[in-house]
Amino acid sequence: MATPTKQRPERPEVKGPVRRLSRPDPRSRSRGGQRFVLVGLVLASVYSLFPVWWLITAATKDRVGLYQSNGLWFSGMHLWENIHQLFTYEDGIFLRWTANSFLYAGVGSLGGTLIALATGYGLARFDFPGRQAVFACVVGSFLIPIALLTLPLYLLFSAIGMVDTPWAMLVPCLINPFSVYLAKVYTEATIPYELLEAARIDGAGELRIFFSIVLRMMTTGGATVFLLAFVNTWNAFFLPLTVLRGEENWTLNIGLYNWTGKRLESGVDLTSLVLTGALLSIVPMAVMMTAMRRYWRTGVTLGALK
Known about the structure:
The chain has helices spanning 26-59, 63-68, 79-88, 93-125, 131-142, 146-160, 167-174, 177-190, 193-201, 206-217, 219-234, 238-243, 252-265, 271-305. By secondary structure, it is mainly alpha-helical. The relative contact order is 0.11.
């Protein structure tokens, strides 16, 4: 019995030239990724700057223009009039609130930065019993929201008579576990053991090593810690709202918040003053960011050289 022969399948006719598949150009993929990132950055910038733009336009309007004009565009230039009314309202209480905010944020953050750098240096370069337990407590402390600590701090300050005093704001600013963590990480990355041992061999004491060597090498890290603490204290709300009672000790945030409630209590509309004060409260943080920029640039350059 003859077996059937296998017939080869007929090849389909190919019309036109045949092109081989090639790998996609990596430059085209990189361009697509760059465009996607660029679009995302533009949208994020617009989203972040939109409230600032609204605040700038609202601070330049009078009371009539604030409610009857377009909220995203100017309606007359009344900024200087609003600033004059802001500085003279209630005998210039706004300037007192500004001075209080600078006191709490400036002095508290400076002292807290010094304590954080010393503590972080001790945890990073000294071996003592319970070192890991202390560091674990530091990490666990900054994981607790500050709002949960407001009531215990108020009860503690009430027992020792510190409520409605500047110390009720300064003492919490001096102790910041997150700043200690940042200082420890930065010390481990920038302060070598060999340098410390050489200083000890030359006869330098621990205090002299810290103030003469460690602090100078941790300028960039200290600037970062100070700026984060300054912004955090400047924007604080729950703690000063709880521990400060008299108007003379209020911060800018608490004072402006109190002005917003006067419309419901006494019928006085201070919206224009509140918006102008909110705009002026941004200026110190912008100046601080600009002043600290050169320290960050120095830190980036040192990291690149290493």
